[in-house]
Amino acid sequence: MTIDPPAVRRTIPDEARIGYWTAPDGWKLRRFDWPAQAPRGRILFQTGRGDIFEKYLETFAYLHASGWSVTAFDWRGQGGSGRLSSDPHVGHASDYRVFDADLTAFWSDWSAEDAGHGLPRIILGHSMGGMMVMRALADRSIQPDAAILVAPMIGLKGPFGAAFSARIARWIAGRGDPARAAWRSNERPGSVASRQSLLTHDADRYSDEGWWQAAHPDLVLGPPSWAWLAQGFAGAAALATDARVESIDTPVLMLIAEADKLVDPRAALRLAARLRNAQVVRFGPESAHEILREADGVRDRALSAIDSFLAACVA
After folding, report:
1. Is 28's pLDDT higher than 50?
2. DSSP-derived secondary structure letter, 39
3. Using one digit for the tens of pLDDT, what is the confidence trace for 296-308?
4. Edge-to-edge strands, sheet with 41-46
5. CB within 8 Å of 149: residues ≥ 6 apart
6. pLDDT for residue 3
7. Confidence of residue 230 (pLDDT cuts 50, 70, 90)
8. Where are the alpha helices (DSSP H) in 4-139?
9. How large is the C-alpha radius of gyration of the chain?
10. For the chain, which domains are there?
11. Phi and psi at residue 235, in whole multiples of 5°?
């Protein structure tokens, strides 16, 4: 399916709506909705840490053209959903359970919006969004017909290995301000690679994020806080030993970049092996972390895998 990428990636579709959803505690999360005519189903897209849903407009356009109604929201503490620290450029969260609660409540309200139609409900999570989807599946707090995890943050890469890096993050978060930035810039500390090389080989798609941030400076977010980092390591360790994973019967598709330098692909593969109904599609050195924003060869293969998976799940 051919779509004009430059126009799609930097334009909100005329039929789409951007608004806000209010969480049970009164917090407002920015949401995106693009309903399809005579939809074959509905997809809730969950972005990664520091993301904005505008980064995925090209993917939304592909899914919408395939007959899916698409919804997304910015996680609390990033994008257009406010901040959880006094520094608007630090991605902070003192406890990932706030993300769990937001996803659970949003899923409930979003599902109720389709009451009586019975359309298939799919959830897709990229990176941190993938971790939160897996936590929700284990908690049984959402009930999707299928789940797609793209470069899921099932494990974090650490400069000294996950276990020791986790102890360091926890120790530092417990001393001083836990909301202070874990490092100055880039996606990880001590990286000698450019930020683009960590995310995608496609320079044009990489530039989309900067274009949107220049147009809307309030969407800009920088590095995570030490508390966010400690919570990320702890969440990955918890999933690795969570016995509920083995009883998840939701069909799951995992797209994994084996050369990923931000999340641990081996941890994702180990978790996939524990699932009852999982398909795994691997990408080699041709793909960095943002598989759906990679060069056409990688992206087209990923979308083809998603198409095949959804066709089988909602037949």
Report:
1. yes
2. -
3. 999 999 999 999 9
4. 17-22, 28-34, 68-73, 41-46, 121-126, 146-150, 252-257, 278-283
5. 124, 125, 130, 133, 134, 252, 253, 254, 255, 268
6. 54
7. very high
8. 5-9, 57-65, 97-112, 128-139
9. 18
10. 5-313 (3.40.50.1820)
11. -65, -40
Has residue 2 got a pLDDT over 70?
no
| Closest C-alpha among 32, 40, 34, 21 to residue 108 | 21
Residues sharing a CB contact under 8 Å with residue 311, sequence separation 6 or more, in sequence order = none
- Rounded to an integer, the average pLDDT of 60-70 is 98
**What's 181's DSSP letter?**
B
- Residue 228: closest CA among 76, 113, 110, 39: 76
State both tokens at 209.
Answer: 């994020």
What element of type H or E holds 43?
Answer: strand 41-46
SS3 235: helix
Backbone angles phi, psi at 273, to 5 degrees: -65, -20
Measured between alpha carbons, how far is 88 from 82 in angstroms, rounded to an integer? 8
Structure tokens at 224: 């995570």
Query: Residue 140 CB: number of other CB atoms within 10 A?
Result: 11
In whole angstroms, what is the distance from residue 290 CA to residue 19 CA? 26
Query: Which of the two residues, 159 and 170, has the higher pLDDT score?
Result: 170
Rounded mean pLDDT of 122-132?
A: 98
Tokens of 65: 């053209």
- Inform me whether the pLDDT recorded for 312 exceeds 90: yes
User: Residue 189: which pLDDT band, with cuts at 50, 70 and 90?
Assistant: low
